[in-house]
Design goal:
By secondary structure, the chain is mainly beta. It has strands spanning about 10-15, 20-30, 35, 40, 50-55, 60-65, 70.
Amino acid sequence: MTKRRLSKGDHVSWNSEAGRVRGKIVRVVTSEVQFKGYTVHASEDEPQYEIKSDNTDHIAMHKGSALRKLAD
């Protein structure tokens, strides 16, 4: 199965405690980094995505499997 790869600037949505949230990918992470006090395990094969919410200044980090790409 081919995994889809998202890119910086893609508009996506994801589930949060407050419901469905929309935002834009601001960074594709492909190596281990610290984010909000946690270690994010990412690689070229399993990237994670830093996303800025459309409605707030909230920044989130998610795996591609948690995201749904939206039409522009």
